[in-house]
Amino acid sequence: MSQAAAWEQQSAAAAAAPVLSAQRVEKTYRNGTHALDEVRLDIGRGEFVSLLGPSGCGKSTLLKMFAGLEEPSHGHIRWWGGNLATVGTPERTLAMVFQEATLMPWATVEQNVRLPLDLRHVPRAQADARVAASLKRVGLESFHAVLPRELSGGMQMRASIARALATSPNLLLMDEPFGALDEFTRNKLDADLRDIWSRQDLTVVFVTHSIYEAVFLSSRVIVMAARPGRVIADVAIDAPGPRDEAFRMSAPFMQYCKTLSDYLTLANQQGDGHEAQH
């Protein structure tokens, strides 16, 4: 096989690999807490996958592993079929949005959104264009010069999302970003996030405690059992067409919510350790 053919074969294999793969991942902390137990999970390009489960089941721990912020005690995480060094190469970048907006209070919205680009030494003109595009994408273009304290909680979270999008990520990790917001604001941001995801080549992994949010946003919902966390259900949300208020009131939406509620009941009872497909 020629070198060119070998390179093409390797490139095709990398393209076919999951964006994220958890391979028998376990996590036990130094204090003896067994947080995760043999988690097996593949996430493909372009999916919107929500992690749903009881408090303390390891959803955020798993997300931090996906971000490279924590390491498994056993097992492996793979990004695009490779190790952590794969992340940051062309078309293999990730960004994370935390539960809090974590904005610099002394900096304007524009400066906050530009921060990761400044840290990467992106040329100023290019950075300005990307910041402007990100702020427009989340509806904050008119608030670029204000300080975070002048924004509502929902607008602060929009700024945090804009900061993540400014890096042009292929993989976006979100740790229950809307949990502290009122229901109206949360529903609006869910709709905006779904629209952003649908318009670009973006894979999203989203942690939530809300069944309704998971069904509205996701192409798949992964249900995790109570500690030690493990996957007990992998539910595809097969709902073509717009995800809007009509969808929230539809019979399929309610049925998906009922299915996930039943799995959460099982999750709170610890389950039997066997993964279910739906």
Automatic annotation (TrEMBL):
Classification via PANTHER family: ALIPHATIC SULFONATES IMPORT ATP-BINDING PROTEIN SSUB 2, TAURINE IMPORT ATP-BINDING PROTEIN-RELATED
One Pfam family in the UniProt entry: ABC_tran
Example GO molecular function: ATP hydrolysis activity
Gene assigned in the entry: tauB
Protein family: Belongs to the ABC transporter superfamily.
Coiled-coil portions: none
Name of the protein in its database record: ABC-type nitrate/sulfonate/bicarbonate transport system, ATPase component protein
InterPro entries per the UniProt record, alphabetical: AAA+_ATPase, ABC_transporter-like_ATP-bd, ABC_transporter-like_CS, ABC_transporter_ATP-bind, P-loop_NTPase
